[in-house]
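Quick start: what a row looks like.
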Amino acid sequence: MKKQLSTTYLVLAIAYLIFSCSEPAKEETKNNAPKGPITLHVGDENYALIDTTESIISWKGSNSFGSHTGYVHISKGELLIENSQIAGGTVEVDMNTIEDEEHQTNSGLIKHLKDPDFFDVKKFPLAAIDITKVTTISAEDKEITGNLTIKGITQPVSFPARIEVKDGLVKAMGKLVIDRTRWGVRYGSGKFLDNLKNETISDSIEFNITIVAKNR
């Protein structure tokens, strides 16, 4: 009888552990799931399609010896227009298009940025900004609030932008500065290399975003 009771308690204990641990695992998968390709609202006149040939994102990173700049290209996106103002939208970025300031895509720097030390582009080829709110500061000055996904990790961001909407044409310029460690990019960070402060890479990455979009 004692052996039978011990077996029963063991089964119950294992079941408890399985079910009590299942919810956190689901939450982690949800928060860190890779960002898939966005679906555009084709035919919806309230959306302005981003012109990927005229839109560009420049980036700037620095370390104790200097700085590096370059570009990354928008693969597709759209902006929700309400009452001649941006109300939302999504911008998808192709991380495979990372290039340096001389538009080289195969340099040692770019190869390192694409590998798992930084953006792990092979595993996470897409990044995206989902605009959730636009606050008006003045006629053209706005504050953009949204969610930025890099390496499958989504974090909230806010940044200033100048936006003009006129005759179905949208022109927007914004500056977004992020702490890369929030998206799991920890290589060379002083937060994790206390003994190498003079050889660290800045946690801050600056993105200057230029977007041109047109109503369908």
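That is the whole record. The radius of gyration is 22 Å. Residues 170 and 213 are 5 Å apart (CA to CA).
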